[in-house]
Amino acid sequence: TVRRVEPTRLAQLTGNLAKMGVRIGNFEYVEEQLGLGDLSGNKFEIVLRGVALGGEDDRQQAGPGLEDVVREAVAQTREGGFLNYFGLQRFGTGATPTHVTGELLLCGKWKEALDSILAPGKSASEHVRQALVEFFSDRDATKALKAVGKGNAVSSLRTLLSHLESRGSTDYAGALQAMPKTIKSLYINAFHGYVWNNVVSER
After folding, report:
1. Structure letter (DSSP) for residue 155
2. Residues 66 and 51 sit within 8 Å (Cβ to Cβ)
3. Burial 18-37 (b: 16+ CB within 10 A, else e)
């Protein structure tokens, strides 16, 4: 769901999205926005191409033998299931994996958790990365806040730095509390996913 956006504006976006194979439509007004957990599910069609029973030499003569192997694999999956791991996107692309931050939050290590979020990562723009490097050298939240700039990409950073600037540079718990609940839950859920992946690996 989106707020205060006309359907015509959304329709204009379909042109660029269509180039990437994405289409959106059937817009309607609703009284309540979608929340975390409202998705009922996803449906995928998976196509396997160029499958062979070994090396390239087997590709020509795979024929019925390959079909038997696939049928057996499908039957085993239907009967016993499969290990459903959380994917890499659950753990983020920042300097600190999100599950590490989640564990720190659950352990009440507020300063370490805050620093893990503010850690300058390779995916950040150059000016943001440089601002955070300087922050870790002098802990000057006011200077860092000015340097990171504005925008959705740095909204979480600005929330933390703004709190440190106004409430004190050591109020780590307060700064984390100021972050939206949905953002904090991403870190906690990432740690849950990390635990799950390790547990099912022992199956």
Report:
1. H
2. yes
3. eeeeeeeeeeeeeeeeeeee
The model's pLDDT over 6-25, given as tens digits with 9 standing for 90+, comes to: 888 887 777 777 777 777 78
Burial of 143 (0-12, 13-18, 19+ CB in 10 A): middle
CA atoms within 13 A on the CB side of 31: 0
| 4 DSSP 8-state letter | S
The model carries a pTM of 0.68
Tokens for 108, please give them: 């009440």
Q: What is the residue whose two structure tokens read 């953002």?
A: 183
Q: 86 in helix, strand or coil?
A: coil
pLDDT one-digit tens code per residue, 133-186: 999 999 999 999 889 888 877 888 999 999 999 988 889 999 999 999 989 999
